[in-house]
Amino acid sequence: MQTTQKPIERLQALLPDVFEPQVQTGELYLKFYLGSSLTVVIPLVQVVETLRISAHQVSPIPNMPASVLGLMSHQGKILWALDLSKLLEVPQKDARSRQYDIIVVEVMLDDGQESDCQFLGLYVPQIQGTLRMNPEDLIPSFEEIMPGLAPYLQGQFQGEDEKLFLLDVDAVCSAESLYVYASSS
């Protein structure tokens, strides 16, 4: 006599990995390229979302640094859009794109009197996706890195086939070059 199994029991027998909890270690990071040979990650907890927008959705602002693309509107909020490669002086092909890959981050700005939350859109040439890395594997030294980039990095991970540099989003958002124009007006 053959016993009949419920559909869920058959699935559990056929696909046991799907029904067993997976233990995942490490933290999630968003991986993206800044230049042809520079791969960067930021903690996913600092990312509000990623977008692909048309270039005409960014309104240029005159007399701003080259790293400031302009202003953009998203979900009823006005955000500054920054070209991260230009801000960090990472060489890349000078091709104007019709589409922007934008990483929206939330940063705390402290003006000395009170802290304020600000959303920023960081344009990067290419978003690669997410990966899980163990923070204990972070190497605080930087090998073969551009000297001007070091203040904006927290360290590096050794990936499977490449070095991944951990970007300090707060340091990027307080970059002196962003505020030179504001103080000279």
Automatic annotation (TrEMBL):
GO biological process: chemotaxis; signal transduction
GO CC annotation: cytosol
Domain CheW-like positions: 26-178
Listed name of the protein: CheW-like domain-containing protein
Organism of this sequence: Adonisia turfae CCMR0082
